[in-house]
Structure formats: C-alpha cells, structure tokens
Design goal:
Elements (H helix, E strand, L loop, with lengths): L1 E6 L3 H11 L5 E7 L3 H10 L4 E3 L2 H8 L3 E4 L3 H13 L3 E4 L7 H13 L4 E3 L7 H9 L8 E11 L13 H4 L3 H4 L2 H11 L2 E9 L10 E8 L4 E7 L1 E13 L2 E7 L8 E5 L4 H9 L9 H14 L7 H20 L3 E2 L8 H4 L23
Parallel strand pairs: 1-2, 1-4, 2-3, 4-5, 5-6, 7-10
Antiparallel strand pairs: 7-11, 8-9, 8-14, 9-10, 11-12, 12-13
Helix pairs in contact: 1-11, 4-5, 5-12, 9-12
C-alpha cells in the first residue's frame, strides 16, 4: 500500500481523491495539507483522512508519506516540490509542473540530488486509446504520420477569473496555452515524438486577465509531421479534439475533460479499411483516461523501482513547446527546439520580458506557500 498525502484541497484535489479511491488497497490517503482550516477539515472528513496539517514541512516530518500529491495553484509547485524532493519523497504534481523551464530544471536537479522522484499529472497519456495509438504510430497498418490537429476549445466566463491568482503570469504561468491546452499538447507529443520548430500567435480578446485567452500555433515535428494547435477559453461549444492523419488512416479523438474508447474514431483509407480496423481492435481497451490510470502506473513504477511516469524529461518537452509558443507569439519569430536557454527571457518566464498588451490585473497576488 502506498501512503499518499494531498497538498491543497481545491476542486482538482476532489478528482484526485475520487480516483485514488478507485485503486482500493493500493493507496491510502494518510494526510492532507491546506491553509484554509475549514476547507481542510471538510476534505479530511469527506475522504476519511486521519491527519490534517497547515504546513507542508510539518506534514512531511510527521506523516512521512510515500507520495505527495500537489494539487495547489501552479505558482506553488516549484517551491513545494523542492521541499518534498529534499525529504526524499516522491511527488505527483498537477499540471503545469512549474511556471518556467528554469523552475522545472531546478526540480530535475533536486530529483537527481535527493531520494525522491517527480512526476507530472498528464493523465491523457494513460487511457487505452492513447496507448493503442502510440503502439501503432509508424507501423504498417497506419503508416507514417503526415499531419495533425490539436484543439482545446473551452469556455471560461469572466467570473471564472474572480480568484485573484487566476489569469496572472506570476501564479498560473499563462492562459489556455499553459493551463488548459497543455493536456492535449502533451498527448500530441506523446504520440508524434519530438517537435522541431513552431510559429505562433496569441491574443487577449475578451477575458479580464493579464495572460492570453487564445493562441494558435503551427508545429513541425522532427519527422516532418505538421500540426496545428489552437487553445481557447472563448469557445461556447466546448471540445477537446485531436486528429492524426497517417498514410493509411485518420485517427480522431473528441472529448472534453477525459475520454474512453468510444471517444475515438478510426477511418482507413481506401483499400486499407480492414487492416486498419483489425490493428486498432487488437490493441488494449477498457481503460479511460483519468488520474486513476496514471496513479496506477506511478504505483507500478514505485513497486519496481522505476522512474514514475511522467518524468521531468517527458514534461520538459511539453513545457518547452508551451514556452516556444509564447516566444514565437510575442516576438514574431520562428522558434526551434532547444533555442530557449538561460539567456532567453522565455526560459525564466512564459511571458518573457512581457506580454504585448497592457496588464489588466495587478501582478503577483499574495498566495501563501505551504512550506
């Protein structure tokens, strides 16, 4: 049994607790941490958590969990991860793993120095449909990938941004490119592999934020595959949509926040229908995407001593694409993989030296760091 502590008791923590419960005796919630005492106590009662704490360091010293599940606002992930890794505890961190490439590289270094491991929550990788597609990509039934579409078309009204930390670079690291579309982009990269270059635009069209509320990018992958990526919080008919066009088949996924096998559509090219359908149906089935699927994979890795998925290196490829989209959108330049290093302002902040529009919120709202 893996002893798990949850840090932060907001909405996402509820989903994590529900999915941990699905794993039965594999995991036990032993502690929870939050600075809001009433919310902390309510969460602990709802999920029968024996120990509650207002500080992270105290919890680590007292409860001694095997895994810390970070469900706090993004601006806290870096500092909290460093504390946990220094204590030799494995971290499973909600997306985004850090506010910048610089912060993620510090987390990677802390993992190398201590006994803990770090994994980012990118649960869409773990559904049976995604596993099936990764296994088939580049093989004879589907052929080589040619083109792709990656759309995160969501809707968030103005009142969604009422909490002072939402829509602020210093706490969320960005808008839909960083905080919403990152799930679909990570799944795209997990299927198609390394990206080579990106050209992008971004804008703040309607929402009362300091960040963008829409972005679009043209991404070229290392093998030449070309993908369009659209991230929006302005789309009343919400959809998360990915399309992969191969030499002999089109594979589509449409859902909103999670998928099952029925969300996938596979279409074979003329003369290839039977082979494509047979290959698709021969793959794994029955596992929806979700936190339970990733937690199960993390626990499997811990049982064998393997690095838990998604590793910092895996997450860095996705975070680098996010940084490149902002860099291209804000500078008007084509950004290549590997270009954003410590001498670039976009290595340290997703908005680089500043977004090309005036701020609509004060920067850096106060949030209490649970350390």
């Amino acid at each position: 049994m893996i002893r798990v502590a949850v840090v932060g008791t907001g909405g996402i923590a509820e989903f994590h607790a529900q999915d941990l419960a699905l794993l039965g005796d594999r995991a036990q919630l032993v502690a929870v941490v939050d600075v809001d005492g009433a919310r902390l106590d309510a969460f602990a009662e709802r999920w029968s958590v024996p120990y509650t704490f207002s500080g992270l360091a105290e919890m680590l010293a007292t409860a001694r969990p095997d895994v810390v599940n970070l469900c706090t606002p993004p601006g806290l992930h870096h500092a909290q991860a460093l504390v946990c890794l220094a204590a030799g505890v494995t971290v499973v961190c909600e997306k985004p793993p850090a506010l910048s490439l610089a912060e993620l590289d510090e987390i990677t270094a802390a993992q190398a120095a201590g006994g803990g491991r770090f994994a980012t929550v990118f649960q869409h990788r773990f559904g049976s449909g995604a596993r099936r597609l990764r296994a088939l990509t580049g093989t004879p039934p589907l052929g080589r990938p040619m083109a792709a579409v990656c759309n995160t078309l969501w809707f968030r009204p103005d009142d969604y941004f009422a909490p002072e930390w939402r829509g602020v670079w210093e706490v969320e690291g960005g808008g839909p490119t960083m905080g919403h579309g990152i799930h679909q982009m990570d799944l795209l990269l997990s299927v198609l592999g390394p990206w080579r270059e990106v050209v992008a635009v971004a804008g703040r069209r309607a929402r009362p934020t300091a960040t963008e509320d829409v972005s679009a990018a043209l991404v070229t992958f290392a093998d030449g595959t070309i993908a369009t990526v659209l991230n929006s919080l302005l789309s009343p008919r919400q959809s998360s949509y990915l399309r992969f066009d191969y030499e002999y088949a089109t594979v589509e996924l449409e859902h909103l926040y999670g998928y099952d096998d029925a969300a996938w559509t596979v279409t074979g090219a003329d003369g290839h229908e039977e082979a494509v359908t047979a290959a698709w149906l021969a793959g794994p089935m029955g596992q929806p995407s979700g936190h339970a699927a990733q937690f199960g994979a993390v626990f499997d890795a811990l049982d064998t001593g393997a690095p838990p998925p998604v590793t910092p290196a895996d997450a860095r490829a996705t975070l680098e694409l996010v940084a490149a989209i902002y860099a291209s959108a804000f500078t008007g330049e084509r950004i290549r993989s590997g270009e954003i290093g410590p001498d670039s302002p976009f290595y340290h902040r997703m908005d680089g030296s500043g977004a090309p529009w005036p701020p609509s919120q004060p920067s850096g709202p106060g949030i209490e760091v649970l350390v």
